[in-house]
Amino acid sequence: MILTSLVEASRLQFALTAMFHWIFVPLTLGLGFIVAFMETKYYLSGNEFWKKTAKFWMRIFGINFAVGVATGLILEFEFGTNWSNYSWFVGDIFGAPLAIEGIFAFFLEATFFAVMFFGWDKVSKRFHLTATWLTAIGANLSAVWILIANSWMQYPVGMEFNPETARSEMTDFWAVVFSPMAMNKLFHTATSAFMLSSVVVMGISAWFLLKGRETEFAKKSMKIAAVFGLVSTLLVAYSGDGSAYQVGKHQPMKLAAMEGLYDSEPGTPLVAVGILNPEKTVYDQREAMLFQISIPQGLSLLANRRLDSFVPGINDIIKGGYTYIDNEGKQAIAPSFEDRVARGKIAIEALADFNRARQTGDTEQMEQDRRVLKENFEHFGYGYFSQPSDMVPPVGLTFYSFRIMVMLGGYFLLFFAAALYLLCRDKKGKKDFGSVRWFLYLSIVSIPLVYICSQAGWIVAEVGRQPWTIQNLLPVQTAVSGVSASSVYTTLVIFFVLFTTLLIAELKIMFSQIKKGPDGIK
Amino acid sequence: METLHILQHYWWAIVSLLGALLVFLLFVQGGQTLLYGTARTEEEKKMLLSVLGHKWEITFTTLVTFGGAAFASFPLFYSTSFGGAYWLWMLILLLFVLQAVSYEFRGKASNLLGAGTYDTFLFFNGMLGTVLLGVAVGTLYSGGAYYMDKFNIADQTGPIISYWANGWNGLDMIAVPFNLLLGLVVFLAARTLGLLFVINVYGKPDSSAGADAPEAVSLGCDLAGRCRKQVKLTGTVFVLAFVCFLIALFTRTGYEADPVGGAIEAVRYKYFLNMIQPVWPAVVLLVGVVLVLTGLGAAFFMRPDHPVSRRSFYITGAGVVLAVWPLLVCAAFNNTAYFHSTVNLQDSLTLYNSSSSLFTLKVMAYVSIAIPFVVWYIAAVWRKMTGGGSDSKS
């Protein structure tokens, strides 16, 4: 019997590491390109101003980069240390993306990172510029392959379960790489990281303007960040819509949790603003929302691209019986929770029977079990559940995180548009940008907001897909390692102390480097 | 089936090569152990860390890729070893995380903990990190106390496929003398290479920093001079410890798996047989040992400006890679059960029962064609970056 506390401790530890990792990584993803762009201006113009500017932001990049790399190693190890069943179950799928990531991205990033930082006096200007671009590309390539792997967990494609090895095996590499879930996630995550980087550049530059320091540096940095940020935020919105559509198709329970939707009807509205009833549980008669402002038929449009379509709620998914379009594009009737559990148990039993037949060499029985397993495999993970609430993610956290993410995303669209407008006025000589103090303060306040927005996005993606590590196939309690909960809680505390210390140190160093300004960088 | 067999061996060889390269690149860790005792002043510490600081990323990335390649090609090893020897891997992890941030934070103002603390982190990473990595690699030969059954996943009440047999979760592996011996060898190799690296950078008579930084050159020469003295003792102990390890390994009983039925049984002198039955591992090991001895001999006995002596770091490093690679290869080649279970032999891992599928290994093999290109650009950048000699200004 797996102790709930072990699963909870393992989830907490992984969530802590992933969230901490994601504090540092998005800034490097976007800042890499911003720095490369600035250095390109230096290369083309020969103007030392751009070299100084690029070097300042490069320093900010470097401080974040080290912690991002270090926490990345922890995540990689934790796949094995805390999720050993999962490591075997998916190792065959993760293999190729990881190999590509290691060979093409990690070394590219690590090799040229050293040139970017220490090579100013050792290599030519052209070689240095190439190294900066390659570092930025390497950092983003590193994200590409792990996001493909993550997307596969949300929508497992291009694979087949092999009862001989008791794991999923890849059958179509390109289906894994180009799955629509992967493309949207990739695009959405990368552009959101660019947005975050742009806000950070805006905020830090605004601080200089408020202090009356480095005016030219700050305004030019802001201009680049505002353009990069606006374009990125528009792309975030576009890819976010695509992501929601994919979630609706392949993870209906997650979408229902994102909306706090329990009992649905055709022409499903989208909750714009709302307060969930905290006492609401599966199957009870309470109202799901205490207060809401909805967009009529909005969710139907978002999820199915049709105003009158039906988007199932949590209770609907548990009850089943509604019509939906399956992965092959055909109309199908959704099975109930009980049906899924029954078929999942049949699949698990068939695997156990297959193993027994294999040991006795009964090939006929093996073939029969293989067939039964294949017929029921899409429900395999449900066989580990006992009650409907087992398949429901934490609704409150998912619902509110989704709203925080979307609202802040909307805010940043306006923020960048306003920044560009104000910078244009400044350029035309109508009003000095440095005198618009409310906007400069807003830029600084926006830094923590963009981190909240980014983290909220990952909470929606990862909490919303609970209880699955691999959608419909492997729930968390079946993915975990066989270590004691106390061991995991101990490492969790160690990591918490370590991360908190590193974060404080990192912030102190960042503030100190920022205060030095571009002239303080050697 | 034949293709799968070849690819399983191919990927074990690649993972082993990454492991061998990692041992060489641990010269960064070895260099960090010079922070106390060898580097005597803050200036010398800065000089030491400035040259190591250009290289830690490559070592770290090789560790990440080594782990990633193991996960990708032999996921059952990753699952069983990492999930079972939990505390051993967690300790290694913590030590390496501290290293990564220390390089970036140490020299910065307002770094919260002070430069001394980050130096301590780097020192412990160099000392304990290398020993514990050696202990972890030692389990490939000495095994681990685990139970493993993939089909446990079909047990709805307890679907965990592997368990460690005691509550120590890998800490017990540190107490195995063979593992500790390998840990010591890895540490000594790292320190020897670290010393040679410092000599290589700061011990060049024609150091290019001389013209505009005579004080730095003088400090560098002092540091290199001390390293030159220390490398004789450290290098000699390393060679002796390595010989002891070879004796311990070659006289060890290994475990052989029937490639068809999978049954596993004990074979005396298994690793020695693995080295000589296909003779190439023994030849590669021999070449590696000769190169290590040549590199060390040059550093010990030749004039510092002798061309061979000036390349002793690279010669010894190449020797380490060539010596370690066949040793890692022979842990699993020749139908050997690697990281065998010490509590239930038939649960042991082999190349056949722990690898990824034929399809995945094939895709990865296509990708691996790019490895020589990656090695080429790393080497080219290394040359460009170290071409300037001493680097006290960084």
Output the keywords.
heterodimer, A: 522 residues, mainly alpha, two-stranded antiparallel sheet, 16 helices, B: 394 residues, 4 strands
Topology:
The complex is a heterodimer of chains A (522) and B (394).
Chain A: H1 4-45, H2 48-81, H3 84-118, H4 125-154, E1 159-162, E2 167-170, H5 173-177, H6 180-211, H7 215-250, H8 252-259, E3 270-276, E4 289-295, H9 298-304, H10 314-319, E5 323-325, E6 331-333, H11 337-360, H12 363-376, H13 395-427, H14 437-463, E7 468-470, E8 474-475, H15 476-479, H16 485-516
Chain B: H1 2-25, H2 27-32, H3 42-52, H4 56-73, H5 75-84, H6 86-105, H7 115-142, E1 146-148, E2 162-164, H8 171-174, H9 177-202, H10 214-250, E3 254-257, E4 264-267, H11 270-276, H12 280-301, H13 307-310, H14 312-329, H15 351-354, H16 358-368, H17 371-386
Antiparallel strand pairs in B: 1-2, 3-4
Structural write-up:
The complex is a heterodimer of chains A (522) and B (394). By secondary structure, chain A is mainly alpha-helical. Chain A has one domain (4-254, 393-520). Chain A is 71% helix and 6% strand. Chain A is built from 16 helices and eight strands. In chain A, the strands form four sheets. Chain A has a two-stranded antiparallel ribbon with strand order 1-2. In chain A, strands 3-4 form a two-stranded antiparallel sheet. In chain A, strands 5-6 form a two-stranded antiparallel sheet. In chain A, helix 3 (84-118) runs antiparallel to helix 4, helix 4 crosses helix 6 (180-211) and helix 11 (337-360) packs antiparallel against helix 12. The longest helix of chain A is centred in the first third of the chain and has 42 residues, at 4-45. Chain A is globular and about 80 Å long. Chain B is mainly alpha-helical and 394 residues long. Chain B has one domain (2-386). Chain B has helices at 2-25, 27-32, 42-52, 56-73, 75-84, 86-105, 115-142, 171-174, 177-202, 214-250, 270-276, 280-301, 307-310, 312-329, 351-354, 358-368, 371-386, and strands at residues 146-148, 162-164, 254-257, 264-267. A two-stranded antiparallel ribbon of chain B has the order 1-2. A two-stranded antiparallel sheet of chain B has the order 3-4. The longest helix of chain B is centred in the middle third of the chain and has 37 residues, at 214-250. Residues 388-394 of chain B have low confidence and may be disordered. Classes of the chains: A mainly alpha (522), B mainly alpha (394). The interface between A and B is large, with 93 and 81 residues.
